[in-house]
Write a structure and sequence with these properties.
The protein has helices spanning 11-23, 67-75, 79-88, 108-121, 174-180, 241-247, 270-283, 289-292, 299-308, 323-334, 389-407, and strands at 3-7, 28-32, 53-54, 62-63, 93-95, 100-103, 125-127, 132-138, 141-146, 151-154, 156-159, 190-192, 196-198, 210-219, 222-233, 237-239, 258-263, 336-343, 351-353, 373-375, 383-384. With 411 residues, the chain is an alpha+beta fold.
Length: 411
């Protein structure tokens, strides 16, 4: 009887176990999990609704150092793989207008309930509170040693330990050390899908404001990427989906001067905006600067930007405004720049940037350095954008790794 050990009971680990059991029902499959229960991080996804995946899967939805290798992996992973996997195991799925996949019942807890029931039905063993310290390979067998002296022996091992994000949920990054025991390397790790820290005195007074805008990340004055959507201003910087998306670039831009640039009027040119400001000032010449431009953007943002470009005192009347002041106001509304200091820490990150290079695993997710060893999920150098892409990668890489580990002939 083939014995398969999955180290890590998150999304990719559970998917690997169930896929292996489907492929080889006679195999003995065991999940070793360091926490007191498996699947804990699944409960925190999609604001409690569990965004399982996305109908649109493409390399442009991911960050990695090997986009060429990623394309080959994603070719094996259409969204149907995720949907079919869950429906085979009893969970109906649906999608929203943006293509995001959810459980039909919109309960993250139900996703875990269904997975736990499927594991039970397939008689998959689960050992919790088991932190693996080392893995070795001798005489055709993997020898696994855990923290409290437990020892396990198997024919195949699938590493699905996750990255470094969300340490409060028990994620330690231990999988990189285990993979290194077989010669694997890792790229630099950095927090992703995490709020961005910025340096600006006005931010404290703007805490909590949400605004629809275009947010761009610039390095040494060059725009790297931009995102449309609702940005949240905080006392430390910016949050919301646009900021989270842009955070995934920061780890690749170390040593460069970074800024976040906010365009409060992405659908209007600077010239059109200037004309609007000129019209307002001419229409209400005897009103104060505090009232003449009200209704354009959030009042606190408006006042902060006017003060930044030297339009004080705001109590003066509109007929005192100079043309160059209106031009500066139009310019800052189209590009308010906040110097970037970095991101919040790992405990605020949703996923890990960087990881074990894709060139170190085969198309089956088997290690290039050790036959019978598989690596899947967040451990690898693949980071998805918001919208279910990281869970899609976790499920599908686990499914493929589990299937291939179960198919492989015993040594």
């Amino acid at each position: 009887m083939k014995r398969i050990f999955i180290i890590g009971g998150g999304a990719s680990g559970i998917a690997a176990a169930l896929s292996a059991a489907e492929t080889a029902p006679e195999a003995e499959i065991t999940i070793l999990e360091g926490l007191d229960r498996i699947g804990k991080k699944i409960l925190a996804t999609g604001n409690g609704h569990c965004n399982l995946g996305n109908e649109i899967i493409a390399p442009s939805c991911y960050h990695t150092q090997r986009a060429d290798r990623l394309q080959g992996f994603l070719a094996q992973m259409p969204s149907k793989v995720t949907v079919d996997f869950f429906e085979r195991n009893g969970l109906l799925c649906t999608s929203d207008e943006a293509g995001r996949l959810y459980p039909y019942c919109k309960q993250a807890s139900m996703v875990l309930d269904v997975l736990l029931l499927a594991l039970k039905r397939k008689k998959i063993h689960i050992v919790c509170g088991c932190k693996v310290e080392s893995i070795s390979y001798k005489k055709g067998q993997f020898m696994i040693k855990a923290e409290h002296g437990e020892r396990f022996e198997g024919d195949a091992v699938i590493l699905t330990t996750g990255g470094k994000a969300a340490p409060k949920q028990g994620i330690t990054g231990a999988g990189y050390e285990l993979a290194a025991q077989f010669g694997h390397h890792r790229t630099a790790l950095y927090p992703c899908l995490v709020p961005i820290q910025c340096r600006h005195n006005a931010l404290r007074g703007l805490k909590g404001i949400r605004v629809q805008c275009e947010t761009a990340l610039c390095a040494d004055g060059e725009q790297i990427a931009s995102e449309l959507g609702e940005l949240q201003l905080t006392e430390y910087g910016v949050s919301g989906i646009p900021a989270l998306q842009l955070s995934c670039y920061l780890g690749q831009l170390r040593g460069r001067e970074l800024e976040v640039s906010i365009d409060f009027f992405p659908k209007q040119s600077e010239e059109a905006l200037l004309a609007l400001l000129q019209q307002r000032a001419a229409q209400y010449p005897y009103e104060s600067l505090e009232t003449v431009f009200l209704g354009l953007v959030h009042k606190r943002i408006l006042y902060a930007l006017m003060k930044e470009i030297g339009m004080e005192p705001l109590s003066r009347t509109a007929d005192s405004i100079k043309e160059k002041e209106l031009k500066r106001l139009a310019a800052i509304l189209k590009g308010w720049c906040l110097p970037v200091e970095g991101t919040l820490a790992w405990d605020q990150a949703q996923v890990t940037g960087g990881g074990i290079p894709l060139k170190e695993v085969e198309d089956t997710f088997e290690s290039c350095y050790q036959k019978g060893l598989y690596l899947a999920g967040e451990l690898l150098d693949v980071t998805g954008i918001c919208g279910g892409y990281n869970l899609h990668w976790a499920w599908c890489s686990g499914i493929i790794a589990g299937r291939c580990a179960a198919k492989e002939e015993e040594a």
